C-alpha cells in the first residue's frame, strides 16, 4: 500500500441495476414504461441551444415554484436536486451529524448504508419482521436520526400513515426522513404531516410515477428552517445542480396532473393483474403498493430464475442475493405487453 493511501476516503459504492444498451425487456430498475407528459417533449424541443452558454438558475426557481404551488406549500419549503439520490445524499450530509446511530430497516434501499459509510455516520439497522414489515416500536429509542422509504423498497410494502406519524412523533429530537420514491402508487403521503412536525422531511422523485428517471429530478419538502439548512449544504457543494433542461421539463411534468394520474392508474392496474397471474403460477408476492413486485417461489431457486430470464428471454429483473432475500427477485411493473412476455416465459419455466 502506498503511503498516501491511508489518507484516501475509501468507500464501498452502491451498485445500480444494469442498464443494458441492446433491446431487452427491462424490469430491473423501477423505471416507468410510459413516456413522460407530452409537455416535456415540447419543452425539450423549445430549448434554445444558445441559452446553454449560460449557467442555469442556481435556485431552480421555476421548478421550485411549480412544485410549491402543486403541493400547496411555500417556495421556501421546497428543495430540488439531481434525482432523489442527490437530495437524500444532501440530507444525510446535513441532518445526520449526531454521534448516536441513525436507524433504518435492514431490508431497504441499499444506498442508505453507502451514504452512512461515505459520511462516517454511525448507523443501526432495525430488522423488518418475518413478513418484511417495518416494526415501528424498533424506532422508539435513542438515535441520531431516522430514514425509511414508504412504500419500502424492495418489498413494496406500505406503512400506514398513522404508524409513520407515531415514529415521527416519538422522535422529535432528531430528523426523520421519509423517502417517498414510490408513494404515488400507494396511499397517503407524509406530506400531510409537514405542518405538524418540525423534524420531518419528505423526499420524492420524478423518476417513477413521472417517468423521468433519465432527467434526474428529486425534491424534498419540509419547513423553511430545514430547507434552509439543506440549501446551505448544497451551496457549499455545488450551486448549479439542476440543468436548464431539467428545470424546463420538470415544470411541464408537474403541470400535467391528468396525464400523471392516468399513468399511475395504468401501472396499478397492471401490477394487480401481474400479482394475480404470478400467484396462479405458484409465486408468492408481497402486497406491493409500488411499481414493482417482490416475489419468491417455493420450488424455484430465484438466482437461477433471474439468470435464466436474462439469458433465455432477454428479461431483466433485479436480484440481490443478500441476507434474508436470497430467494427473492424484484420485478418492475412494465407495460401489459412486457408483463405478458414475462408471464408467458414463466408459464413454460420448470
Ligand atoms: N429511494 C428509493 C427507495 C429508490 O428505490 C430509488 C431508486 N433507485 C431512489 C430513492 C432514487 O431515485 P432517483 O435518484 O432516481 O430519484
Description:
The protein has 350 residues and is α/β, with parallel strands linked by helices. The protein is 35% helix and 13% strand. The chain has ten helices and twelve strands. The protein has helices at 38-45, 61-71, 83-95, 111-118, 161-169, 224-235, 244-255, 257-280, 302-313, 336-347; strands spanning 25-26, 78-81, 102-105, 123-126, 146-149, 176-179, 200-205, 218-221, 284-285, 292-296, 315-316, 329-332. The strands form four sheets. Strands 2-8-7-6-5 form a five-stranded mixed sheet, sandwiched between helices. Strands 9-10-12 form a three-stranded antiparallel sheet. A two-stranded parallel sheet has the order 1-11. Strand 9 and strand 10 (292-296) form a beta hairpin. Helix 1 runs antiparallel to helix 7, helix 2 runs parallel beside helix 7 and helix 8 (257-280) packs parallel to helix 10 (336-347). It binds 4'-deoxy-4'-aminopyridoxal-5'-phosphate (PMP). Residues 83-85, 109, 149, 153, 179, 181, 205, 207, 213, 218 line the site of 4'-deoxy-4'-aminopyridoxal-5'-phosphate.
Amino acid at each position: 500500500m502506498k503511503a498516501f493511501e491511508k489518507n484516501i476516503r475509501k468507500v464501498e459504492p452502491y451498485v445500480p441495476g444494469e442498464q443494458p444498451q441492446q433491446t431487452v425487456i427491462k424490469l430491473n430498475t423501477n423505471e416507468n414504461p410510459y413516456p413522460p407528459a407530452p409537455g416535456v417533449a415540447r419543452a425539450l424541443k423549445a430549448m434554445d441551444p444558445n441559452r446553454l452558454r449560460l449557467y442555469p438558475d442556481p435556485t431552480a426557481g421555476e421548478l421550485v415554484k411549480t412544485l410549491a404551488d402543486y403541493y400547496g406549500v411555500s417556495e421556501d419549503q421546497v428543495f430540488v436536486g439531481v434525482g432523489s439520490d442527490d437530495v437524500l445524499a444532501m440530507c444525510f450530509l446535513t441532518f445526520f451529524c449526531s454521534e448516536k446511530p441513525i436507524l433504518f430497516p435492514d431490508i431497504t434501499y441499499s444506498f442508505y448504508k453507502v451514504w452512512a459509510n461515505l459520511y462516517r455516520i454511525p448507523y443501526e439497522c432495525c430488522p423488518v419482521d418475518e413478513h418484511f414489515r417495518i416494526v415501528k416500536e424498533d424506532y422508539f429509542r435513542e438515535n441520531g436520526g431516522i430514514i425509511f422509504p414508504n412504500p419500502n423498497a424492495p418489498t413494496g410494502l406500505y406503512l400506514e400513515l398513522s404508524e409513520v406519524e407515531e415514529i415521527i412523533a416519538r422522535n422529535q429530537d432528531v430528523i426523520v426522513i421519509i423517502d417517498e420514491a414510490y408513494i404515488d402508487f400507494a396511499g397517503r403521503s407524509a406530506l400531510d404531516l409537514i405542518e405538524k412536525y418540525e423534524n420531518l422531511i419528505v423526499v420524492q422523485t420524478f423518476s417513477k410515477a413521472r417517468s423521468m428517471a433519465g432527467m434526474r429530478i428529486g425534491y424534498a419538502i419540509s419547513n423553511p428552517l430545514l430547507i434552509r439548512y439543506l440549501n446551505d449544504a448544497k451551496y457549499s457543494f455545488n450551486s448549479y445542480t439542476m440543468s436548464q433542461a431539467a428545470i424546463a421539463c420538470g415544470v411541464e411534468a408537474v403541470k400535467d396532473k391528468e396525464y400523471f394520474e392516468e399513468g399511475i392508474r395504468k401501472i396499478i392496474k397492471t401490477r394487480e393483474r401481474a400479482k394475480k397471474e404470478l400467484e396462479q403460477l405458484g409465486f408468492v408476492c408481497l402486497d406491493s403498493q409500488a411499481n414493482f413486485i417482490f416475489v419468491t417461489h417455493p420450488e424455484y431457486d430465484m438466482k437461477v430464475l433471474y439468470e435464466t430470464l436474462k439469458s433465455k428471454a432477454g428479461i431483466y429483473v433485479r436480484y440481490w442475493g443478500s441476507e434474508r432475500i436470497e430467494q427473492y427477485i424484484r420485478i418492475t411493473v412494465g407495460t401489459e405487453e412486457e408483463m405478458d412476455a414475462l408471464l408467458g416465459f414463466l408459464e413454460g419455466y420448470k
